[in-house]
Structure to design on (518 residues):
């Protein structure tokens, strides 16, 4: 479904990707893990064609994304749903209208049918009763579930989840985990889940990539990664603060700096 | 040498900014058909811009009109030409004060609101989310707001002018005792369609400039609270300067 080859990309003078390669098979749940700031969100924006790579290839469904024109991009995006980390609901519209938005834009369904679809999607995330609320009246977890209902509205073939577990209460978290699984198992949606939450992601991922320093430093099933002999991956999987990825940002010796700043 | 380099850098920056505004405008024009096919999106924005600015426009219009009435009366009574007050007040309002002051008030009230709204939508990924949903935020969000402002400003200017003339009438005729008949008949005598056309051209140009600046600043704001705040300030500053420059250019061109 997604093939990324030798991806290189810099922004504001900083190298984000430095020869990244990965494959995401149709119908799987693939996790992309890595510390904050490694470019996971950036990678998703490359897949949706919102950012163009400096060089390298990003193919989705056989189409070379950076080479698509606007019409081609919009056509591709109709088959992609994305869950944003901060939900990104339209603040002026009700929950119902938010979920109805892509349907009204991209289909000619009569309002009666749109209502049926929207209520079905909201029911799936447990929020049919919240249809008339405004986004400002929702908790973070509820907003993310509404955003998921919206991302599912057009029955996409590919769903991208950006940090779906971050900052959720345990109940919302359990629901999101289950929904990702159901979307994948029942509807056959290919799922890409970006997260630094190793524990949660291991529960649902078929395959994982660990990204750090602009490239893939490890890959495999969650089980394989847990037993990896790479110290880097061990550090990441066990969540140790210090290791090959140092706890400290490079700095002059602590003692010198405290004693007068001769550095 | 350092001074010169600095000036050069500033100039390059300004040109780059101008270039990005032009590019932005072209992209927005491309997205216009989407907005025009959904007139409801535009009427909502006309309504928003109008409602936001109406009270301030009417209040300011009345007071500006009263000042014009007072100053005009003072000047004309020295020349013993009080009867011309109506004509002078109407001309200065229709040709200058109405379009300029309305545009400045619009920028402060509705323009800043537009910038903050779009900037916040960007900062909260709402615009990104639309793009991923294959909906162009230029067509859906930006173009209707630009059109709303462009259309609202001439109407607001007309309201400003009308209320302003009432203000001048109130001071001139009711307080200072200018002859009621002369006030209105001299106005009819001296204000011709060319003056009104000048006012309309200006209000369209200012409305376009104010709306363009407002949506541009919002769309290009940094995705932070500080970025949106700065963009809002820039909307007021840039629009004010731009309106005054345009005013001179249009006036010198039309007179
Ligand atoms: N528009 C931008 N300008 C400058 N730097 C950016 C921009 N967008 C992202 N970055 C940088 O790129 C890096 C990767 O960002 P991101 O993809 O959001 O990381 P992640 O999602 O893995 O936390 C970050 O260090 C961020 O500072
Ligand atoms: Mg991120």
């Amino acid at each position: 479904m997604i093939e990324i080859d030798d991806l290189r990309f810099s922004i504001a003078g900083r190298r984000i990707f430095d020869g990244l390669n990965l494959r995401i098979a149709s119908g799987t749940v693939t996790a992309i893990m890595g510390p904050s700031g490694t470019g996971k969100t950036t990678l998703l924006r490359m897949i949706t064609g919102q950012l163009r790579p400096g060089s390298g290839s990003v193919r989705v469904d056989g189409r070379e994304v950076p080479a698509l024109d606007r019409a081609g991009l919009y056509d591709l995006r109709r088959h992609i749903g994305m869950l944003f980390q901060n939900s990104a609901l339209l603040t002026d519209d009700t929950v119902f209208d938010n979920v109805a938005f892509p349907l009204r834009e991209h289909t000619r369904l009569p309002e009666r049918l749109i209502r049926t679809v929207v209520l079905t999607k909201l029911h799936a995330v447990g929020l049919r009763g919240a249809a008339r609320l405004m986004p400002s009246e929702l908790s973070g977890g509820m907003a993310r579930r509404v955003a998921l209902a919206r991302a599912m509205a057009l029955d996409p073939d590919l769903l991208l989840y950006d940090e779906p577990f971050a900052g959720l209460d345990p109940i919302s978290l359990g629901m999101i985990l289950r929904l990702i699984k159901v979307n994948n198992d029942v509807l056959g949606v290919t799922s890409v889940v970006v997260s630094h939450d190793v524990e949660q992601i291991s529960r649902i991922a078929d395959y994982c990539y660990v990204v750090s320093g602009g490239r893939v430093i490890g890959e495999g099933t969650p089980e394989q990664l847990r037993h990896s002999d790479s110290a880097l991956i061990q550090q990441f999987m066990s969540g140790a603060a210090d290791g090959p990825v140092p706890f400290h940002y490079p700095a002059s010796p602590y003692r010198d700096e405290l004693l007068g700043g001769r550095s | 040498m350092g001074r010169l380099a600095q000036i050069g850098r500033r100039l390059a920056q300004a040109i780059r900014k101008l270039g990005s505004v032009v590019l932005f405008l072209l992209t927005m024009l491309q997205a216009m058909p989407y907005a025009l096919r959904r007139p409801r999106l535009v009427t909502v924005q006309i309504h928003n811009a109008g409602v936001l600015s109406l009270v301030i426009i009417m209040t300011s219009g009345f007071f500006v009109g009263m000042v014009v009435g007072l100053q005009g009366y003072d000047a004309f009574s020295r020349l013993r030409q009080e009867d011309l007050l109506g004509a002078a007040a109407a001309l200065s309002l229709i040709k200058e004060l109405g379009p300029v002051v309305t545009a400045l008030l619009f920028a402060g009230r509705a323009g800043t609101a537009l910038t903050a709204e779009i900037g916040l939508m960007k900062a909260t990924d709402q615009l990104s989310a639309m793009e991923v949903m294959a909906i162009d935020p230029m067509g859906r969000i930006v173009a209707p707001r630009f059109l709303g402002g462009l259309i609202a400003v001439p109407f607001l200017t007309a309201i400003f002018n009308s209320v302003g003339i009432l203000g001048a009438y109130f001071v001139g005729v009711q307080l200072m005792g200018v002859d009621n008949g002369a006030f209105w008949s001299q106005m009819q005598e001296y204000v011709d369609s060319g003056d009104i056309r000048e006012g309309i051209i200006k209000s369209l140009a200012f409305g376009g400039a104010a709306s363009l600046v407002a949506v541009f600043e919002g769309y290009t704001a940094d995705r932070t609270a500080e970025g949106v705040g700065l963009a809002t300030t820039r909307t007021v500053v840039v629009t004010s300067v731009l309106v005054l420059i345009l005013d001179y250019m249009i006036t010198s061109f039309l007179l």
Summary: The two ends of chain A are 51 Å apart (CA to CA).
